[in-house]
Amino acid sequence: MTGFSPSTIRRLKKLTQIPCVWEGDRRTLLSPVVSEEFELPAGECILWVDGSEGVIRSMEVMGSAQGREAMVRTLIQAMEHPQGGNKRARPQKILVRDREVQFYLRGILQGLDIVVDYSPELPLIDQIFQSFGEVMESYVPPLPPKYAEDLTKKAYKIWEMAPWEFVHPNKIISIEINKWDIEKLYLSIMGSADYTLLFYRSAESLTRFRTDFYHSYEESEHESLESAFLQQDCLFLTFDPIDEDDEDLDTEDEDIGYLPSSEIEPNFGAIHPLEGLNSILYEEEAQIMYVALESVIRFLRDHKRPLSQKDFPVITRRYRISVPDCDQGNQNVSVNICTMPELYSQLYEIESADLAEDDFDQIEQLRYDLIPEGCLLSIGTIPWNSLISLPPNIRHLGGHKIKAKCDTIPIVLVQTSRAKANTIIKNIRDAGDIRGICFSTIDSDQDGKKVDLSILQTQNENLFLITEFSHEDENYIASHKRWKRACHLNGGHCGLVITKGLSNKRGNPGIDDIMAFFDGKCITSQELNIKFSEI
What we know:
Layout: H1 6-13, E1 17-29, E2 33-34, E3 39-40, E4 43-50, E5 55-62, H2 69-80, E6 90-96, H3 99-108, E7 115-118, H4 123-138, H5 145-161, E8 173-179, E9 182-190, E10 196-200, H6 203-219, H7 222-230, E11 234-241, E12 264-272, E13 276-278, H8 283-302, H9 304-308, E14 316-323, E15 331-339, H10 341-353, H11 357-365, E16 366-367, E17 376-383, H12 384-388, E18 395-396, E19 408-415, H13 418-430, E20 434-443, E21 450-458, E22 463-470, H14 474-489, E23 493-499, E24 514-523, H15 525-528
Parallel strand pairs: 1-6, 6-7, 16-22, 18-24, 19-23, 20-24
Antiparallel strand pairs: 1-4, 2-3, 4-5, 8-9, 8-15, 9-10, 10-11, 11-12, 12-13, 14-15, 17-19, 20-21, 21-22, 23-24
Helix pairs in contact: 5-8, 6-7, 6-10
InterPro entries: DUF6930, DUF7309
Pfam family, one: DUF6930
């Protein structure tokens, strides 16, 4: 049996010993315990309480594979790092209701002057776990257990398909179910940092929300925006980053589309004008969501190419969906799914009617005279070591404090002739260097295909178009995801690299060809206050 080291015993004996009795026990939580005060997952719960004061000293939930050592670790926490602002202390006596644990603790705690006794009942702990049981009885999980795994798998499938990359939010898809009191759902696929699937219960709710939203947005009325949001009647699936505590990830502004599915958490819920926002799907809603997601996955898989075009053709398909039901066996549901070109046109008119004149002024402010014609442009990464080796007169950091977490930094690379490179560098220097680089997704009015405008903002707030990248280019899509990932790892930093050698090293410049490196921030369309979606 492993015991404490002499130094640990000396450290613990320095704690004031108080004339009190602590209770300790380990019990199984079959379900999560969620209350206003705390949230505990299912598992083995170890609890140490001060029976004299009636307070919890330490509490921890762990897997069943943990041995009796876990009881000791939690007891040490109760002494040295008690919960609830209690003072550090060493008890005079402890009670447990397991004989084996009693004998084990007696051996471990030798030298600490703590009496270890057995008691078949632990009144305070019994009372606490009874209250846990009452909380568990009232707990409603976010998804019904028998649908949770299947719905989560389908949600991750949606994330991997990334339909927001080829389906515009105005391209509404109708899902006719005719079951569970639902005739049709109207799906809107949101991207551009929202990454949400909205399944409206009526077309009226969809159009009313869009009208109210654009009006409130243009008037900058926060309360009206919130009211419009809560007036929706829909089910939803949204995606959020798992690591929300990461100080470098601002979930309000940063595009999370580059994250792999392992770093994404799907969340389901419903909105109703009379019920508000609810982050829980009950059984019938879960069944509806199951059918809707499965039919949408099949539809997107079968018709990705036509859905990607500017025109929104009429596409109709029928699918037979098998819904797992633990009580009645699998149910087969026949689903009709089709595109809605007329509603697409209606939503476009709503959007266009609310496009304010200052948006057009903003479009005119986007300048095209920074990057000359004939330059070769690309995105990628460059090793930090290579940048550090550059002469100081080539590195323009703009006073930014760079916090790198990886070996490379994402860049936009401009390769041109020496003369044109000098002109670009001079113009940027005259503007105070760069503030940042933004990628804004729009629909081209020429063919309706999605393109990303790469926009550079200088310190004097001028906006320059660097170039545009087509979403049809799979190499660009893959590179852009890596680029955004690298931005995140570098604390939101990116760079603009100007190189010479267009004639003799076309597409393959070396470190010696770099004439300037400008450091900036990865910025969003929202930060630039760019609200137009089509040029």
